[in-house]
Amino acid sequence: MDPVDPLAGMYPAVSEVLELPAVRDGLPAVRAGAGHLDRPVRWTHAAEIADVARLLRGGELLLTTGVLLPTDDAGLAAYVQGLAAVGVTGVMVETGRRFDRLPDAMVQAAEEVGLVLVELTREARFATITEQVHARIVDAQIAELRASDAVHATFTELTVEGASPTEVVRQVSRMAGRPVVLENLAHQVLAVDPAGQDLAAVLGDWEGRSRAVRTAARTGYDDSSGWLVTTVGARGQDWGRLLLRTDAPPTPRDTMLVERGAATVALARLVERDRESLERQTHRTLLTGVIAGSVPLPELVARASALGVPLEGHALVAVLVRLTRGPVGPALEVQERLRDLAETVADALRDSRAAGLVGGVDDATVGVLLSLPPREDVDPVLGRLSTSLAKRATAGRAVLPASGWVVAVGSVVANVRDLRRAFLEAAQVADAAPSDDDASPRPYYRLPDVRLRGLLHLLRDDDRLQTFVERELGPLLAHDAQHGTDLVGVLRGYLNAGRNKSAAADAAHLSRPSFYERLHKIEKVLAVDLDSVESCLSLHVALLGLDAIRR
Question: pTM of the entire structure?
Answer without folding.
Answer: 0.49
